């Protein structure tokens, strides 16, 4: 059984979908803890499922590195096989990435390497493209530059706003994440091989 720690910053809609999947006895992964960098609304989803939560806020630390050390300690306490960034809106310090990667993955609401960064949906609309997408990647020290594990295109429709487009990307993102976790848990996907290539 694959042990997951999920990190969030917001409402946790992707987390909720993952909790629903993991609650199925046939799903080969379990979320053992959920962490956040603030008092995120999505922590309530974890609490509803009886999953332990922790918050490590950067404001409580003198440096980003010190914050990263504490966050890493909190994660490692749960001995996860995989750490999932799901709407976690902070760059991790290099030492933390080195300690966890390649068993450290992130979802992104664009078809990488197109539109990296915090505003992937907005940037796609501003660029006037006819399609964008969703991606799951291994986290490295760049901004959404790690090896791509899975991705899928999503059309941009006439009249789309940032909200309507994001609402169509989210289900695709969730399904990609679910499938990636399933593939890792069943041995169909080796993150070490992906990171090496």
TrEMBL record:
Gene3D superfamilies: Formyl transferase, N-terminal domain. It catalyses: N(1)-(5-phospho-beta-D-ribosyl)glycinamide + (6R)-10-formyltetrahydrofolate = N(2)-formyl-N(1)-(5-phospho-beta-D-ribosyl)glycinamide + (6S)-5,6,7,8-tetrahydrofolate + H(+). The keyword Transferase applies. Keywords: Purine biosynthesis, Transferase. The record marks 144 as: Raises pKa of active site His. SUPFAM superfamilies: Formyltransferase. One of its GO terms (biological process) is 'de novo' IMP biosynthetic process. GO terms for cellular component: cytosol. The keyword Transferase applies. It comes from the Bacteria. N(1)-(5-phospho-beta-D-ribosyl)glycinamide binds at residues 12-14. Pfam families: Formyl_trans_N. Its EC number is 2.1.2.2. Pathway: Purine metabolism; IMP biosynthesis via de novo pathway; N(2)-formyl-N(1)-(5-phospho-D-ribosyl)glycinamide from N(1)-(5-phospho-D-ribosyl)glycinamide (10-formyl THF route): step 1/1. Residues 3-181 form the Formyl transferase N-terminal domain. (6R)-10-formyltetrahydrofolate binds at residues 64, 89-92, 106. Catalyzes the transfer of a formyl group from 10-formyltetrahydrofolate to 5-phospho-ribosyl-glycinamide (GAR), producing 5-phospho-ribosyl-N-formylglycinamide (FGAR) and tetrahydrofolate. Belongs to the GART family. This is Phosphoribosylglycinamide formyltransferase. It comes from Ruicaihuangia caeni. The lineage of its organism: Bacteria, Bacillati, Actinomycetota, Actinomycetes, Micrococcales.
